[in-house]
Amino acid sequence: MIKLKINGVDVSVEEGSTVLEAAQFLGFPIPTLCHMEGLTPYGACRLCVVEIGNPPRSKLVSSCTYPAEDGLVVRTSSERVMRARRMIIELLLATCPQSKIIQDLASKFNVRQQRFKQEYEDCILCGLCVRMCEEQMMAKAIGFRGRGENRSIGTPFDIKSEVCRQCGGCIYVCPACQLRCTYNEPEKAICGGCANLAPPCLEKENFHDMMCYMDPCVACEIRKENN
Fold first, then answer.
1. Angle, in degrees to the nearest 10, between helices 100-108 and 79-95
2. 202 CB contacts (<8 Å, ≥6 apart)?
3. Measured between alpha carbons, how far is 139 from 141 in angstroms, rounded to an integer?
4. Which domain holds residue 137?
5. Exposed, middle or buried, 38 (CB in 10 Å: 0-12/13-18/19+)?
6. Of 110, 85, 104, whose CA–CA distance to 180 is shortest?
7. Residue 143 maps to which CATH number?
């Protein structure tokens, strides 16, 4: 068994586990768009970033691809981690603002502005559809092509695939296709129509490196009722 510490809690996990799996075992919520159980970890969206090691020599890594190691110290919601996640959400909003899933993430993490050039694309290159097609549907009908800003997903040479069974698995897992947000005014990238109240416990100084086990938080729900 591998022994590590997550948010000050000692945990033992099986060898071969990732930091994300270890955190989920304890119930610590870590957001992710490109990770799905049953598919190979890819680490594309970077939302699952966590801080490992002790400051000032700590570093940020993607928890879905980083292996759990003996003696590893992990913080899933430190100040540094939360800043990085908000920045990533801003970049995702710049790419695909009409994704309901991305809009919900913006609300949950209190992202109220988007400072990057708006693209209004339909793909965030998370690779879920490619892995679903290859690993679960055993088709390999689609894949990545090109590099850098020209990187995209499609069939080889844009020719209709003969192995595609029109199963819809790629659409089912796509965070840009599952639900579309109808609030798409060009000058306002962030909808805010379904904004969540920020949990008050995260504002307390003693909780910079800790996130509530429960989602929704019981304390937050009680506070709502009292108001």
1. 150
2. 77, 211, 212
3. 5
4. 128-173
5. exposed
6. 104
7. 3.30.70.20
Residue 81 tokens read as 């981690």
Q: CA angle at residue 17 from 15 to 21, to 5 degrees?
A: 145
Q: Which band of pLDDT confidence, cut at 50, 70 and 90, is reported for residue 56?
A: confident
Q: Please write the tens of the pLDDT for every residue from 84-123.
A: 999 999 999 998 888 889 989 998 998 988 889 888 788 8
Question: How many domains does one find in the chain?
Answer: 2
Query: What's the distance, Cα to Cα, between the start and end of the chain in Å?
Result: 46
Query: Cα-flanking dihedrals φ and ψ of residue 23, to 5°?
Result: -65, -40
Query: Contact 134/117 with Cβ under 8 angstroms?
Result: no
Q: Give the pLDDT confidence of 159-215 residue by residue, as tens digits.
A: 888 899 888 888 889 988 766 665 556 566 676 655 544 444 444 444 445 445 455
Of 9, 12, 35, which is closest to residue 209 (Cα–Cα)?
A: 9
Q: Which residue has the tokens 């949990």?
A: 199
- The answer to whether the beta carbons of residues 17 and 63 sit under 8 Å apart is no
The verdict on 66 and 145 lying in the same domain is no
